[in-house]
């Protein structure tokens, strides 16, 4: 006889967090519905003002920018949920004395809870990805293609979002078990997840080598960068002297500004541009996903280690 | 099967490096089938001892065997009710019982758990947070009994019950324990509450077992003597506590052979025995032979 789908620890975990699950589902449905309604009406609206914006395109641009930024909060919310309501509250109120003395082993009980949270996190991250990917048509599509490197757009259109959500589950478990206080664990897990996203957001473009374009200077007084491939993300640019040394023409010409590091020879012989072409999106996404997943695994291992150390 | 429910050897638990250990060098053995009172003053280590046996804590040092195995391995065969009766406040009574069934699938006795809950007139639809202290205790006991454990660990189970509810709940508990041969360990600092129900006693104080054994054996081993003699006249016995009274001297002694007929000898009540030991923390511990740990565990 195979166990029914909803029995044992699975039933228990679903029942204990029923309210939160319904709330999350309702919020997700509402968000998707709102987005769809607004997008459709904006695309079918004629020229002229739309909901107080000068035209529907401006509205959609703002909406896309703000919603992708809102998606950045999502992993932190998951971390706070796992650390606080799921684990911290149980330890703070002493209900763990009930839970940990049933026939189900503490390890299985924690596994069941984290499985549910991971499923919830991955499921909702995938749903957000699908919504953002599917909606990359029309105005939003053009904007996503242009802004792929921007914070928000970058995270909400690739697998890093799933990785960050899993990291949040691991960190939440670790914080909840370690701190044993709802509020502290909420702050710690949410904060750590947010801090990691912030840190990797500034480091991620160094994770993959940039492409470099160079060319001869056609007009030394007015060095311009000729067109990089469409949608490229310019990281750094400047000029080269005849020896091929890089320097910043704005700081070093006509004479070196104080405190800047300029070569002795400041004749402009060419220009250079370091940039990430659109194709680097996937390399950076996959490298970052790998790093975050490794950190998620470490945090989860830490949570189980604490549980094992504390209960026999 | 084993005939030993709990066996502790030199068990020590410290909650932090700088704090006094809650238990230090605690050793005893409890045979199966006993109904044991675990008594002692507040902070004596009663709750710590029960939590260790329930597999909630890891001892700092020493050894602890429960039902012949480790506390972790014995978890499915042990039921534990913590002092504050922790239950999920958002669940209804029926859902709480279902939770017990789902988390103890191997041994759950749904009929018994439902019966214990129904006897207390618990509304199955009522939320746990709306229950009174007594109802909450009954629900926690229903969960513990439904688990059909071989060892029942109850930490101050009757503390928040009125005398009638206490009497009824104790009746249910004792009937179940007697029917299934369950070993019960109940802690309390109210001595009278346990005297009738229990046949075994562990007095814990200062993190150690001070008295351990069958209640009758322990009472018989002591005598309450009154007379005009001096304490030195009682030197062949162990004097637990002595104090001057109007007519002379009253002392609780652990008898070794007959007492000089010059003294009036009475058998002490359980309460007198316990109070004397609590007032005299330096009196040597007495653990009757069946209650000392066997060499196998002590080694």
UniProtKB/TrEMBL annotation, chain A:
Keyword list, A-Z: Membrane, Transmembrane, Transmembrane helix
Protein name: ABC transporter permease
Transmembrane segments: 20-38, 69-88, 116-136, 156-178, 183-203, 281-307
Superkingdom of the organism of origin: Bacteria
Keyword Zinc: no
TrEMBL record, chain B:
One Pfam family per UniProt: ABC_tran
Keyword Coiled coil attached: no
UniProt-listed SMART domains: AAA (SM00382)
Assigned keywords, A-Z: ATP-binding, Nucleotide-binding, Transport
Annotated ranges, domain ABC transporter: 6-231
PROSITE patterns for the chain: ABC_TRANSPORTER_1 (PS00211), ABC_TRANSPORTER_2 (PS50893)
Protein name: ATP-binding cassette domain-containing protein
Organism in which the protein naturally occurs: Streptomyces typhae
């Amino acid at each position: 006889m195979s166990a029914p789908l909803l029995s044992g620890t699975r039933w228990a975990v679903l029942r204990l967090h029923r309210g939160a699950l319904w709330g999350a589902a309702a919020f997700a449905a509402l968000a998707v519905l709102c987005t769809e309604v607004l997008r459709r009406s904006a695309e079918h609206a004629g020229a002229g003002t739309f909901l107080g914006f000068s035209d529907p395109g401006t509205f959609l641009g703002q909406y896309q920018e703000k919603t992708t930024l809102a998606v950045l909060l999502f992993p932190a919310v998951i971390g706070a949920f796992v650390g606080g309501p799921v684990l911290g509250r149980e330890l703070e109120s002493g209900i763990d004395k009930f839970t940990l003395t049933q026939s189900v082993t503490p390890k299985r009980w924690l596994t069941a809870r984290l499985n549910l949270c991971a499923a919830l996190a991955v499921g909702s991250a995938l749903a957000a990805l699908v919504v953002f990917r599917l909606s990359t048509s029309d105005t939003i599509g053009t904007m996503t293609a242009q802004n792929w490197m921007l914070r928000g757009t970058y995270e909400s259109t690739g697998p890093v979002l799933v990785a960050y959500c899993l990291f949040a589950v691991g960190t939440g478990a670790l914080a909840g078990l370690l701190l044993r206080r709802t509020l502290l664990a909420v702050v710690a897990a949410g904060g750590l997840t947010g801090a990691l996203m912030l840190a990797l957001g500034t480091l991620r473009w160094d994770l993959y080598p940039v492409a470099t374009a160079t060319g001869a200077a056609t007009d030394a007084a007015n060095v311009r960068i000729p067109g990089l491939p469409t949608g490229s993300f310019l990281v750094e640019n400047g000029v080269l002297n005849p020896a091929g040394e890089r320097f910043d023409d704005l700081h070093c010409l006509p004479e070196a500004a104080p405190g800047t590091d300029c070569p002795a020879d400041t004749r402009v012989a060419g220009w250079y541009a370091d940039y990430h072409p659109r194709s680097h999106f996937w390399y950076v996404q996959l490298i970052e996903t790998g790093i975050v997943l490794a950190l998620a695994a470490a945090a989860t291992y830490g949570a189980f280690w604490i549980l094992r150390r504390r209960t026999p | 099967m084993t005939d030993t429910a709990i066996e502790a050897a030199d068990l020590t638990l410290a909650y932090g490096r700088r704090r006094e250990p809650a238990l230090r060098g605690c050793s005893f053995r409890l045979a199966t089938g006993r109904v044991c009172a675990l008594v002692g003053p507040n902070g004596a280590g009663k709750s710590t001892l029960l939590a260790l046996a329930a597999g909630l804590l890891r001892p700092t040092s020493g050894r602890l065997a429960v039902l012949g195995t480790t506390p972790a391995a014995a978890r499915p065969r042990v039921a534990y009710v913590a002092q504050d009766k922790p239950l999920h406040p958002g669940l209804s009574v029926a859902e709480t019982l279902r939770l017990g069934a789902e988390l103890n699938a191997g041994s759950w006795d749904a009929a018994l758990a439902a019966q214990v809950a129904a006897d207390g007139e618990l509304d199955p639809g009522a939320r746990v947070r709306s229950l009174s202290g007594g109802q909450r205790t009954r629900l926690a006991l229903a969960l513990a009994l439904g688990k059909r454990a071989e060892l029942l660990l109850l930490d101050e189970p009757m503390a928040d019950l009125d005398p009638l509810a206490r009497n009824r709940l104790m009746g249910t508990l004792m009937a179940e324990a007697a029917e299934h041969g369950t070993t019960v360990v109940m802690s309390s600092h109210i001595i009278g509450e346990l005297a009738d129900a229990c046949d075994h006693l562990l007095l814990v104080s200062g993190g150690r077992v001070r008295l351990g054994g069958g209640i009758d054996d322990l009472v018989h081993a002591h005598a309450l003597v009154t007379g005009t003699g001096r304490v030195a006249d009682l030197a062949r016995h162990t004097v637990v506590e002595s104090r001057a009274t109007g007519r002379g001297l009253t002392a609780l002694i652990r008898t070794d052979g007959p007492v000089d007929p010059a003294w009036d000898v009475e058998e002490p009540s359980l309460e007198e025995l316990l109070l004397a030991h609590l007032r005299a923390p330096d009196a040597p511990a007495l653990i009757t032979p069946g209650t000392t740990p066997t060499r196998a565990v002590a080694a």
